[in-house]
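To fix ideas, we now present one chain and its tokenised fold:
***
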Amino acid sequence: MLALVTGASSGIGLQYATALARDYHTDLLLVSNQEQEQIEVARQLAATYGVKTTPLYMDLSKQTAAEELHDYCKEHGIQVDILINNAGVFFFNPLTETSMRRLELMLMLHVVTVAKLTRLFAEDMIKRELTEAEQQEKVLGKPRKKGYILNMSSMSAWMAYPGIQTYNSTKAFIYNFSKSIWYELYPQGVNITVMTPGAVDTALFGLAPNLRKLAVNLTVSIPPEKLVKRALKRMFQGKKADMPGVINHLSTPLLKHTPDWLVRFTYKFVGKFQK
């Protein structure tokens, strides 16, 4: 099998690429806007795990990025069995103080490109006919499907919260989009899974190192390698959606009913710790 992983040069994307190569011996098409880092990641994974890796430098926030990536795969004879839509950005800022470029970047990356990539590669997967050997193949004890898609949403999809107003809204799109598509793709032999983690211990959120360590110790934040292991397991099991962490499950219903005064207080407090 071959997996296409976006945002694969660092953070959660790097963990996905590593886990797929190490645990599932999957060949990789690694896509990122960090060219040199991507080349090094591809080299290391190929040397360490003996899989074929292809690094591809691309800005996925471009209007035509999804079409260009899909065309690249067709031109080079690359059949994508697994699509990991992981690339993303985060910023904590009032909307009126956010530049139009940053606003457009997040909307393109989280909404337009994710939707287009899902649409293009899902169509390819549906048309695919598994060989007799592939039909007998099992992944985690389950029959292999024609294709797998994993989209990264967030627990913030349930939060109407200032400072991350665009982030949580785009993650809500990914969540509802993916769950809706699950019903369309499942009967056709393709599975799509959406993950909605809470805080993940990466540099994405701009927290100081001591606060990141504290969050992990309190199980408020989850290490990326633990998240990825669970996400891939759920994807191959055919799950529609998953949220890791008991605390997240318990607190999600409360997010919809948080008093306004508490939201305002938290917004002011959290803003002090952003870089």
Remarks:
- The mean pLDDT is 88.
